[in-house]
Write a structure and sequence with these properties.
Blueprint (H helix, E strand, L loop, with lengths): L2 H14 L14 H25 L1 H9 L6 H10 L8 H8 L5 H11 L7 H13 L3 H12 L2
Helix pairs in contact: 2-3, 2-4, 4-6, 5-6, 6-8, 7-8
Length: about 150
């Protein structure tokens, strides 16, 4: 997990007065401890991303656009959480992630787009393009499922 992503989210958590604290990896004695810390932090991040999507969507958009690109796992988690946002910029940010190099980021961006899919013909066309041309079969399947869900 990138230090940049942890620091950016940790700062935002502190600014918003949220309860979580950034885990310290300086005192980790073994790889197992590092993995366990990352898993706890990852679960915590999902909760924070969901809170931001509901209450501070512009903060989450800012994290996605700038800070989280250093860590694709956090980026994917944030993208999927953006489905809870009602902010009009959300879909535009997620559409940009459909070109990300990591398939799991593209898949989570699609899941984040689900609530917005029927609000725009342009968005449906872009998801249809992904359904037919993405290099990942998993991503293509998610896109096809979204288009068939209506």
């Amino acid at each position: 997990m990138s230090e940049l992503a942890i620091t950016g989210l940790g700062t935002l958590i502190e600014q918003r007065g949220l309860r979580a604290a950034r885990p310290s990896t300086n005192s980790m004695a073994s790889d197992t401890a590092v993995v366990a810390t990352r898993r706890r932090f990852s679960r915590h991040c999902v909760e924070q991303f969901e809170w931001l999507a509901r209450h501070e969507p512009l903060e989450l958009i800012e994290l996605v656009q700038a800070d989280l690109h250093a860590d694709p796992v956090l980026l994917a988690q944030a993208a999927e959480s953006m489905a809870l946002s009602q902010h009009p910029l959300t879909a535009r940010v997620l559409i940009a992630l459909l070109d990300h190099q990591r398939p799991y980021v593209r898949e989570c961006a699609l899941l984040g787009l689900a609530p917005f899919l029927w609000s725009s013909l342009e968005l449906r066309d872009r998801v249809a393009e992904v359904a037919g041309a993405d290099c990942s079969q998993a991503v293509r399947e998610v896109a096809k499922e979204l288009l068939a869900a209506r």
